[in-house]
Design a protein that fits this description.
The protein is mostly helical. The chain contains 16 helices and six strands. The strands form three sheets. It has a two-stranded antiparallel ribbon with strand order 1-2. It has a two-stranded antiparallel sheet with strand order 3-4. The chain has a two-stranded antiparallel sheet with strand order 5-6. A hairpin with a 5-residue loop joins strand 5 and strand 6.
Length: about 350
């Protein structure tokens, strides 16, 4: 009887150990975050084995437990792994992703990638979209400028308001497409589908900061407008973004114009430092050299660094800043100090040619 009891105990320990191990294994190859459906692109090179693919997925943040994932790679029977660019999410389990790669599942293969670059004007976004879809840039802009279509979007997205339909706004959706790379899964994507990918991303970014934006003295439209100007002024760090935003807010509080040449560039749909006198004298309401206060709307795609820079703008006494040819930004409290910064760090003809 004692031997049977001992055998039972041993078997029980084995079963419990196996169950615990199975639980750890199944949990380890499960979804990283079942609620996160954001698209993540991974490129599987030719000749990749199961173990190297697991490493690629792990680097992309798609693996919950790398040890368990490696075990799955060894025992999963993945013998026909197919190179391609796939689009997965953290809500998928490792076996689901490995099965898709093993079968070359067309459902998860990226058909097209559309990139909204930081600081892109809407016309540049349209040109980028035209390169990867059957639509021309003019067709894309016609849809984005269609006020009936924009009204439909206003009904869907809390951060889009009637401010974008003001007669002085050049393009209603300017500044509202979040800069990112969007992987299009539809075989025949419409402009509307692609547009909403970028607006959904902006929705996620702004919703995280909704209470902070509401506590600021700006409407969402004004907030994005200021953030877009900060973006085009070349903020390489959040510290610079916050400092530049602080300068602009000081100027508005003093009843001064923003004095930003990048707004003039927007009027003429170009980027340059050496603007013509005739351009600087433009009577456009976007000319922040002549208009006091805020311009009608954003002038480019706004990244998180500028959004957070405006939310956390610097408490500074500076009223001027100047970007030197090497990208360094020089700040000043007076016009005299500002002019000295310009004189001490001039743009040469070579700098202008290489801008």
């Amino acid at each position: 009887m004692g031997k049977l009891k001992a055998l039972f105990i041993v078997l029980l320990i084995v079963v419990l150990a196996f169950s615990a191990g199975l639980f750890v294994y199944l949990n380890g190859i499960g979804a990283v975050d079942p609620d996160d459906d954001e698209n993540i692109s991974v490129t599987i090179p030719n000749g990749s084995g199961a173990s190297s693919i697991v490493a690629i997925l792990d680097d992309a943040g798609l693996v919950k437990n790398s040890t368990m994932a490696k075990i799955n790679a060894r025992i999963g029977g993945y013998n026909t792994l197919q190179a391609n660019t796939y689009v997965f999410s953290k809500s998928m389990t490792l076996p689901e992703m490995m099965k898709a790669i093993n079968e070359g599942d067309f459902q998860y293969v990226s058909k097209t990638a559309f990139r909204v670059a930081e600081g892109y004007r809407l016309t540049q976004c349209a040109a980028a979209l035209a390169e990867v879809t059957p639509y021309t840039a003019d067709e894309v802009m016609a849809k984005w400028d269609d006020k009936d279509y924009v009204r439909e979007l206003i009904d869907k997205y809390w951060f889009l308001t009637d401010d974008v339909l003001d007669d002085n706004v050049m393009h209603p959706l300017e500044g509202y497409l979040f800069p990112d790379t969007y992987f299009i899964m539809d075989d025949e994507p419409t402009i509307e589908i692609i547009t909403e990918l970028a607006l959904d991303r902006m929705d996620a970014v702004l919703t995280e900061r909704k209470s902070e934006i509401e506590q600021s003295k700006f409407s969402v439209h004004e907030f994005l407008t200021l953030a877009s100007i900060v973006t085009k002024e070349g903020c390489a760090t959040e510290e610079d973004a916050a400092h530049i935003a602080g300068v602009f807010i000081n100027r508005m509080n003093e009843g001064m114009s923003l004095g930003s040449d990048v707004t003039v560039c927007y009027i003429f749909d170009e980027d340059r430092v050496d603007l013509k006198v005739s351009q600087l004298e433009s009577d456009s309401p976007y000319n922040a050299r002549k208009v006091t206060g805020m311009i009608p709307g954003p002038i480019c795609a706004v990244p998180e660094i500028a959004i957070d820079g405006v939310l956390n703008y610097a408490d500074t006494d500076d009223l001027f800043f100047y970007a030197g040819p090497d990208g360094t930004i020089y700040y000043a409290k007076s016009n005299e100090e500002h002019e000295k910064n310009v004189a001490d760090h001039p743009w040469t003809e070579e700098d202008l040619a290489n801008q």
